[in-house]
Amino acid sequence: MTTYRLPVSELRERRGFTRSSAYYADHAPMAAAKTEGADTVDPVADAHARGREEGRAEAMQEAAAQRAEEDAAREAITLAFARFDEESGQALRERLRETVIALCEDAVLPLALDIDGLHRRVEAAAALLQRKTDERIIRLNPSDHALVLPLVDPKLTLVPDPAIERGALRIDTEDGGVEDGPAQWRQAIAEALAQC
């Protein structure tokens, strides 16, 4: 708000009364009113008008700045969505698949090193190949061989094979063979996830 001050010298002057020209015969009332209005400026009305204009201009600037900020944010979001295309989606799916496989490997590894579980798998795999004419050779990792040997049927031929992963087994027959172990489990998990 603007404050107008009158000089002290003007307040001290004695001006007295002046005669109004409205009471004289040669006076034109409309012309006098127009002239007086043109010469006199109301400082309060002037300050009010200036304040309104300044406030309006400031509000327009703030609105323009806010609109520019919103437009920039909208543009950033649009750009982010454009970047997340099919290729990005495929990469995300692949990373999730690898994460699940890694988590499953952590869960599967203790099962591979379970000696009683390995014994049951040896017996079950040997039972699958039940023909009496077949010679079944069961190959195990040397570390597992020593632990499982006392637990399995003595009729089965257990052979230590360093090429076999710890916790895995391979049964060889004349017709082919069967493998079971962490590598096959990981492959089965990966194949199952590939179908998702």
- Determine the number of helices (DSSP H or I, runs of at least 4 residues): 7
Overall morphology: rod-shaped
- CATH architecture annotation name of the domain at 115-194: 2-Layer Sandwich
User: What strand line-up does the widest sheet have?
Assistant: 2-1-3-4
What's the Cα radius of gyration? 49 Å
Question: What is the average per-residue confidence, as pLDDT, rounded to a whole number?
Answer: 74
N to C succession of SSEs: HHHHHEHEEEH
Structural class: alpha+beta
Low-pLDDT sequence parts = none
What is the CATH topology of the domain at 115-194? hypothetical protein PF0899 fold
Largest sheet: 4 strands, mixed
**Helical residue percent band:** 55-70%
- Number of beta strands: 4
Ends distance:
71 Å
**Share of β-strand residues:** 5-15%
CATH class of the domain at 115-194: Alpha Beta
Q: What is the name of the CATH superfamily of the domain at 115-194?
A: ATP synthase, E subunit, C-terminal
Quick summary of this structure?
The chain is an alpha+beta fold and 196 residues long. It is 60% helix and 9% strand.
Description:
By secondary structure, this protein is an alpha+beta fold. 60% of the residues lie in helices and 9% in strands. It is built from seven helices and four strands, in the order αααααβαβββα. It has a four-stranded mixed sheet with strand order 2-1-3-4. The model has no long low-confidence stretch (mean pLDDT 74).
